[in-house]
């Protein structure tokens, strides 16, 4: 069919992105048969990345102009090869991305995706396919055990508008999780997890988080704007915070998590590690510069602030409401109109509140860390051994300040996150006295240690 007819039809179908998935696929494959591959060249290539039946042609087209592909398209190509389990090609593209400096900009982000070797045993639900790497069989089997529960939760919550298929792959790696939103295919790095109910629930709630990202796509397609390249940071600040805010509903810890994220935000905002506006202007830089700090939790605290100010319903409907604002033409305007204020002003108000309250006033004081000792101290740094009542993750549940109340960067020594017994490492500090904070959901602890 001619170009205009194709796009008119495409744009109508796209208003119900997931509901019309197979109709969209049919439209694209018919066009491919009738008009040939040339129709999908260059700026239209991305269309082919969305459907199982056109993935091979997508890869072929990318390869034919590989020198001209921008980083986003190369990442898309890598994730498509990984989805097709074509590891040789995935590895080749990964190498290209590394040479282009992607690893420098976003450390660990793509690690292991090109080496994913799926197990025989998988979870196959109505929508969700969950696989784990066969080299972590024991852990993988344990982690996918509750996937029927999480699938039930998302179907109850969003039903008809969910993607037809969603994929979750557990890989043997550490770091942020990349996802391919064209195929709703996400990679969770699980090397730092072990078999515990706490961790399984935490990971399952990650499915809610990713689902939010896919649904944003659905709502944006119904609306009148898409975030531009300049708006990507403020978009991420809002969307990661919202996705984390929403996952607490699966955990049934909505109010408890608020206390925790406000306390995290207190350490981040109070320490002036970066400009407040960097959260909305340089999201990726902040996120990758401060991998050991709770940046996602800080964004989540902001979503809770919006909930306090505008009510649960208004915040909850933030994405669903996009199609109702037909006259709003940009993401920035949408934020301003939906929350009746400039984002920056809201952020300032939030920061003031967090600092004034020293985190969250509803924190319940508790002896979270029950035992602490210096295990090693030399010119290279300090290693502390701790025992605690709850599973803790260095830099996220535990914060350490020197005698000048400067927040220190700390890391875990053990491979695993969320340990009730473990060690922390930090750079040397001049004074003998350090101040320790521990936060776990609604519980909080602060003490001087020397
Ligand atoms: Zn996310």
Account of the 3D structure:
With 450 residues, this protein is α+β, with helices and mostly antiparallel strands. The strands form three sheets. The protein has a five-stranded mixed sheet. Strands 6-13-12-9 form a four-stranded mixed sheet, with helices on one face. The mean pLDDT is 95. Bound molecules: zinc ion.
Quick recap of the structure?
The chain has helices at 3-14, 21-35, 55-64, 71-83, 87-99, 102-105, 137-143, 147-158, 197-222, 232-251, 254-270, 278-281, 283-289, 295-310, 312-316, 331-338, 343-356, and strands spanning 123-124, 128-132, 166-171, 179-180, 185-189, 364-365, 369-378, 381-392, 398-401, 410-412, 419-426, 434-440, 443-449. It is an alpha+beta fold and 450 residues long.
| Overall 3D shape | globular
Q: In percent terms, what proportion of residues is strand? A: 15-25%
The H/E string reads HHHHHHEEHHEEEHHHHHHHHHEEEEEEEE
Structural class: alpha+beta
> What ligands does this structure carry?
zinc ion
Domain unit count: 4
Strand order of the largest sheet: 1-2-3-5-4
Note the quaternary state here: single chain
Overall helicity = 40-55%
How would a textbook summarize the main sheet?
A: 5 strands, mixed
Which stretches are poorly predicted, pLDDT < 50 over at least 5 residues? none
Number of helical regions: 17
Please tell me how large the radius of gyration is: 23 Å
Query: How far do the termini sit from each other?
Result: 76 Å
Q: Please tell me the overall pLDDT.
A: 95
Q: How many E-type strands?
A: 13
């Amino acid at each position: 069919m001619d170009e205009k007819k194709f796009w008119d039809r495409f744009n109508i179908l796209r208003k119900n992105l997931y509901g019309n998935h197979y109709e969209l696929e049919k439209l694209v494959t018919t066009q491919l048969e009738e008009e040939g591959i040339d129709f999908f060249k260059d700026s239209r290539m991305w269309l082919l990345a969305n459907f199982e039946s056109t993935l091979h042609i997508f890869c072929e087209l990318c390869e034919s102009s590989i020198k001209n592909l921008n980083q986003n398209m190369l990442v898309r190509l890598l994730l498509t090869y990984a989805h097709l389990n074509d590891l040789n090609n995935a590895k080749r593209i990964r190498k290209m991305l590394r040479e282009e400096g992607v690893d420098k900009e976003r450390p660990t982000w793509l690690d292991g995706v090109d080496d994913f070797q799926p197990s025989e045993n998988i979870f196959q639900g109505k929508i969700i396919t969950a696989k784990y790497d066969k080299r972590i069989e024991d852990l993988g089997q344990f982690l996918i055990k509750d996937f029927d529960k999480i699938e039930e939760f998302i179907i109850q919550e969003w039903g008809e508008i969910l993607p037809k298929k969603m994929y979750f792959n557990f890989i043997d790696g550490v770091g942020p999780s990349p996802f391919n939103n064209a195929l709703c295919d996400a990679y969770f790095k699980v090397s730092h997890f072990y078999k515990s109910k706490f961790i399984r629930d935490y990971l399952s709630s990650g499915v809610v988080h990713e689902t939010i990202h896919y649904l944003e796509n659905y709502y944006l397609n119904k609306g009148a704007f898409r975030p531009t390249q300049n708006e990507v940071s403020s978009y991420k600040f809002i969307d990661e915070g919202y996705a984390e805010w929403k996952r607490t509903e699966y955990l049934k810890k909505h109010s408890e998590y608020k206390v925790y994220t406000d306390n995290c935000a207190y350490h981040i905002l109070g320490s002036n590690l970066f400009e407040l506006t960097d959260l909305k202007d340089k999201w990726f830089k902040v996120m990758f510069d401060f991998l050991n700090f709770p940046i996602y939790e800080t964004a989540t605290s902001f979503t809770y602030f919006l909930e306090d100010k505008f009510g649960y319903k208004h915040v909850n409907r933030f994405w669903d409401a996009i199609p109702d604002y037909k006259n709003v033409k940009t993401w920035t305007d949408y934020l301003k109109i939906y929350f009746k204020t400039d984002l920056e002003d809201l952020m300032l108000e939030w920061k003031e509140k967090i600092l004034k309250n020293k985190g969250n006033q509803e924190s319940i004081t508790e002896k979270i860390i029950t035992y602490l000792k210096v295990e090693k101290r030399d010119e290279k740094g300090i290693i502390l051994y701790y025992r605690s009542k709850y599973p803790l993750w260095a830099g996220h549940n535990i914060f350490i300040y020197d005698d000048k109340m400067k927040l220190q960067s700390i890391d875990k020594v053990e491979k695993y996150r969320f340990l009730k017994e473990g060690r922390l490492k930090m750079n040397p500090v001049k004074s003998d006295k350090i101040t320790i904070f521990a936060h776990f959901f609604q519980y909080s602890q602060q003490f001087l240690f020397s």
